[in-house]
Amino acid sequence: MSTKLGTRAGRLGTLAVLAVGLTGSAVALAPASASAACGGAVGGGWLDGGSWSSVHLRSTSSCTMYTRLTVDDATASIGHSWVIRVERQVNGTYGWLTSHTQSRSVIGGFQGTRDTATVPNSTVDDDRFRACYNHAGAGWVCTPWIEA
């Protein structure tokens, strides 16, 4: 297996970002580029829109991964609920298997961000990640798998 060092920024730059309307519909946004190997807003693509929220796959400075929900209209989010999740899969002898997940339930009526706990990341090409959300029990919507 080859190491990810030196290519992590390129891979993180291809992270998919979802825009989540309060109706629960998803719109795929263009990938954003990462400015650093690990840490901060690796997803980018924030929306300006009264009642929109966004779900991003993000990386910490130590390269662990998490999902962030951002709500930019507290009034419009009253009465809504989300569950956000980050998933990690590891490629082994039997193919891709889920090794870690972290979820967080979020009740509307706030403006700002809510994050899941983090999942680990390795320095070799044997893991992949995705961000998911479930709005008001309508079912899971996830980004494509990202090898980061």
Structure description:
The protein contains two helices and nine strands. It has helices spanning 8-12, 74-77, and strands spanning 17-21, 26-29, 52-59, 65-71, 81-92, 95-107, 112-115, 127-135, 140-142. The strands form two sheets. Strands 2-1-3-4-7 form a five-stranded antiparallel β-sheet, with no helix packed on it. A hairpin with a 4-residue loop joins β1 and β2. The longest helix is centred in the first third of the chain and has 5 residues, at 8-12. The chain is elongated, with a radius of gyration of 15 Å.
Classification by helices and strands: mainly beta
Q: State the helix count.
A: 2
Number of strand elements? 9
**What gross morphology would you assign?**
elongated
Keywords:
single chain; 44% strand; 148 residues; 2 helices; 4-stranded antiparallel beta sheet; disordered N terminus
Topology, pairings included?
Elements: H1 8-12, E1 17-21, E2 26-29, E3 52-59, E4 65-71, H2 74-77, E5 81-92, E6 95-107, E7 112-115, E8 127-135, E9 140-142
Antiparallel strand pairs: 1-2, 1-3, 3-4, 4-7, 5-6, 5-8, 8-9
Short structural description:
With 148 residues, the chain is mainly beta.
